[in-house]
Amino acid sequence: MEAPPRVVATGPAVELIRELIGRHGPVMFHQSGGCCDGSAPMCYPDGEFRVGQRDVLVGEVDVDADDRTGVRVWISGPQFEAWRHMQMVIDAVPGRGSGFSLENPTGRRFLARARMFTPEELELLEAHPPLLGADLDE
Known about the structure:
The chain is an alpha/beta fold. It has one domain (7-131): Hypothetical Protein Aq_1857, Chain: A (Sandwich). The protein contains three helices and seven strands, in the order βαββββαββα. The chain has helices spanning 11-24, 77-83, 119-126; strands at residues 7-9, 27-31, 42-45, 56-61, 71-75, 86-94, 108-116. It has a four-stranded mixed sheet. The protein has a three-stranded mixed sheet with strand order 1-6-7.
C-alpha cells in the first residue's frame, strides 16, 4: 500500500490555481497558522516567498497546467505538528482572500480543510518524512 498524499486540492481550487498560473506563472503555497489570514493557505509566485528552515513541504498539488510540475505546498513547522495527523485539502470558496495572496482580486479565496488519516495511513507516512526548508539546495 502506498502512502497517501499529505495534501490534495478540490476541483474549484485546481481551477483557481490554473487561473493564477496563467496570470502569474508558477505558484506555491504556504500556510503559517498565524493571525490575519495566516491560517489560510497563501498563494505566491513561486520563489517569491522565502521558505524558512523549519518549514515543512507538505507535498505538491498536481494541476496539470501546461505540463508543469506540481505546485508545492509548505507549512510552518509548528503548524505541521498540528496537521501531521491530517490530510490538508485545499479548497476555493467565494469571498475575499488576504491582501498578500494572489487570489485576492478574483472574488474567491483559498481555504484549508482537513481529513484525518487512518492509523494505517499514518504508519505509512511515518516511513516517508517530509522535506524541510533546511533541506533545500538553494
